[in-house]
């Protein structure tokens, strides 16, 4: 061989050596000396190592699409461990569209989803296995609508902006993309939008718990997709509420651990919005903030427990980044909502410290809330943020260790904010009651029951005079709304409107809640003396809020039976067991 040999012959390749130039052309020095025939070896082209996405190998070359002018362009990779951004997924590769329609046909979509989830015995999930493509598209479209009603919900691109035909095609592409890249989140999104089909909803709920336990508990996996799936599952948990399987608080703590394992507080610990942060994935930030929203809105306001994330500066930085990089109006409110939730957490911590040290709270909750309202509250504020503000204001007054019961002035302020909260919900679109998240749902039902209790308190304070109380008006309005939802879901069956307004399990609970609140409110007119024990705590909050579980609750009946006219009216002491904590003492059961 003449010159330097760049490829090895067969003999040199076996020795793992390079060819050296020989005296004759086409023969290397080793073969020439050994008397061997020098057989040229064509080197095999090396390929770059494949990347792993969700435990699967993904191709390094981006898919190629052809635009309307006939030119081919390469599409960028989807975000690993995450749902696609709206800006990246407005148009999906034609290759994925063909795959979603040809390989994942109408009848086999549910089976394909189970396979992607790694479910071995797919016959154990008949409702999920029998999920057809058209039904899955309907449920996914419903989730896309519902995600607009919950702060920081994981967003998917809406395909209804350019006509019905395009919307259907985009949903096909979106389903195919999610099925391959993040099947666990796809399962959660379909589950969230399936409230109109109770049989499928129950089985999909069990399937998600099964997948979550297998991946997180058994296999110890941690990924952004699993975190987003769990938070989405929690955000509409009330749609699948069953007292026997209630695990909201446990799931929230699991989400807290996943946030820490993924290093999200450390990732957003630096203040400012630099060029690198502007390229951040908005759904990753939403997952971080949604976890905080559920911690404060559910853990503090719902369970009366401390906020456990303890990374407010990282949360503030993440909220500012989201407000800059996202075009959604609700994301622009991220800093305002984070500050409001932080006030909730601070108020709870201050009360806990004051109860332990027997000293008054160091900060004034009402004044801080007034400053917040001056800064952030305006006519364009979203309905969810308004509900959170009104509920938080009443919460800051009722949950105070300064007195056993609220004063008359505090009662009037609380009633005003509770009325504003209920009116705000009733003023939204008809489907808002079905679309709202678990935090706002908890605000709603807690407000209804607290209005009834405040009615007892106000009646006792005025010497037992009977007067109309606003809770009766709102009960009637919510019953009218419930009837409108029923009529809308039964009009023109088979259309999308049926799924949009249909949530029989959720609305069934609402019916029973309204009955229980009505019965509680009617006790205002009872011709008997209202004792402080009746006002502060009658049975438990579990029996109060869940008095609709069965008629004639044995525990509640036993509590009432042992209360006789000769029983002294024991006033609760100033030890943290005030009006609010009495009401919320057993809220863990809800």
TrEMBL record:
Q: Which InterPro entries match?
A: prtT, Zn2-C6_fun-type_DNA-bd_sf, Zn2Cys6_DnaBD
Quote the biased-composition stretches of kind Polar residues, using this chain's numbering.
69-93
Residue ranges of domain Zn(2)-C6 fungal-type in the record: 8-40
Q: Cite the entry's keywords alphabetically.
A: DNA-binding, Nucleus, Transcription, Transcription regulation
Q: By its UniProt entry, which SMART domains does this protein fall under?
A: GAL4
Superkingdom is Eukaryota
The annotated regions of Basic and acidic residues compositional bias extend over: 94-105
UniProt subcellular location: Nucleus
UniProt region (Disordered), positions on chain: 53-105
Q: Which residues cross the membrane?
A: none
Annotated CDD domains: GAL4
**What are this entry's molecular-function GO terms?**
DNA-binding transcription factor activity, RNA polymerase II-specific; transcription cis-regulatory region binding; zinc ion binding
Q: What is the protein's given name? A: Zn(2)-C6 fungal-type domain-containing protein
- Which lineage do the record's taxonomy fields give for this organism? Eukaryota, Fungi, Dikarya, Ascomycota, Pezizomycotina
């Amino acid at each position: 061989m003449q010159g330097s040999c760049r490829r090895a012959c067969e003999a040199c390749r076996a020795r793992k050596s390079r060819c050296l130039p020989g005296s004759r052309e086409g023969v290397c020095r080793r073969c020439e000396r050994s008397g061997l025939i020098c057989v040229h070896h064509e080197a095999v082209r090396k390929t770059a190592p494949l990347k792993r996405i969700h435990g699967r190998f993904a191709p390094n070359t981006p898919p190629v699409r052809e635009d309307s002018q006939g030119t081919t362009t390469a599409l960028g990779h989807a975000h690993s461990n995450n749902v696609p951004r709206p800006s990246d997924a407005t148009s999906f590769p034609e290759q994925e569209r063909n795959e979603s329609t040809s390989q994942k046909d109408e009848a086999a979509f549910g089976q394909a989803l189970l396979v992607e989830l790694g479910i071995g015995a797919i016959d154990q999930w008949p409702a999920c296995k029998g999920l057809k493509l058209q039904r899955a598209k309907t449920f996914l479209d419903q989730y896309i609508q519902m995600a607009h009603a919950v702060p920081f919900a994981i967003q998917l691109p809406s395909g209804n902006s350019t006509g019905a035909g395009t919307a259907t095609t985009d949903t096909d592409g979106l389903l195919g993309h999610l099925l391959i890249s993040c099947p666990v989140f796809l399962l959660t999104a379909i589950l969230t939008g399936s409230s109109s089909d109770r049989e499928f909803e129950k089985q999909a709920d069990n399937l998600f718990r099964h997948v979550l336990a297998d991946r997180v508990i058994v296999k110890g996996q941690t990924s952004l997709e699993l975190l987003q799936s769990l938070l989405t599952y929690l955000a509409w948990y009330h749609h699948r509420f069953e007292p026997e399987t209630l695990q909201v608080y446990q799931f929230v703590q699991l989400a807290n651990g996943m946030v820490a394992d993924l290093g999200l507080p450390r990732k957003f610990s630096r203040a400012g919005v630099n060029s690198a942060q502007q390229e951040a994935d908005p759904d990753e930030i939403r997952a971080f903030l949604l976890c905080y929203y559920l911690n404060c809105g559910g853990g503090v306001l719902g369970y009366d427990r401390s906020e456990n994330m303890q990374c407010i500066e990282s949360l503030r930085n993440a909220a500012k980044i989201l407000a800059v990089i996202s075009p959604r109006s609700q994301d622009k409110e991220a800093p305002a909502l984070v500050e409001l939730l932080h006030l909730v957490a601070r108020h709870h911590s201050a009360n806990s410290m004051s109860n332990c040290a027997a000293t008054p709270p160091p900060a004034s909750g009402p004044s801080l809330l007034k400053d917040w309202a001056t800064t952030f509250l305006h006519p364009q504020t979203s309905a969810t943020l308004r509900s959170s503000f009104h509920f938080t204001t009443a919460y800051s007054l009722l949950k105070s260790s300064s007195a056993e019961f609220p004063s008359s002035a505090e009662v009037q302020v609380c009633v005003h904010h509770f009325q504003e909260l209920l009116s705000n919900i009733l003023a939204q679109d008809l489907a808002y009651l079905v679309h709202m998240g678990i935090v706002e749902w908890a605000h709603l039902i807690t407000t209804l029951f607290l209005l009834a209790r405040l009615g007892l308190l106000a009646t006792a304070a005025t010497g037992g005079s009977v007067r109309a109380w606003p809770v009766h008006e709102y009960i009637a309005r919510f019953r009218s709304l419930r009837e409108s939802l029923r009529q809308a879901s039964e009009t023109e069956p088979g259309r999308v409107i049926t799924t949009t307004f249909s949530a029989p399990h959720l609305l069934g609970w609402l019916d029973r809640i309204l009955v229980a609140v009505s019965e509680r409110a009617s006790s205002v007119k009872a011709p008997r003396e209202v004792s402080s024990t009746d006002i502060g705590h009658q049975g438990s909050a579990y029996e109060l809020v869940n008095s609709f579980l069965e008629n004639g609750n044995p525990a509640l009946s036993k509590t009432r039976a042992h209360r006789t006219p000769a029983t002294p009216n024991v006033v609760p002491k100033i030890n943290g067991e005030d009006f609010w904590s009495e009401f919320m003492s057993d809220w863990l059961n809800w």
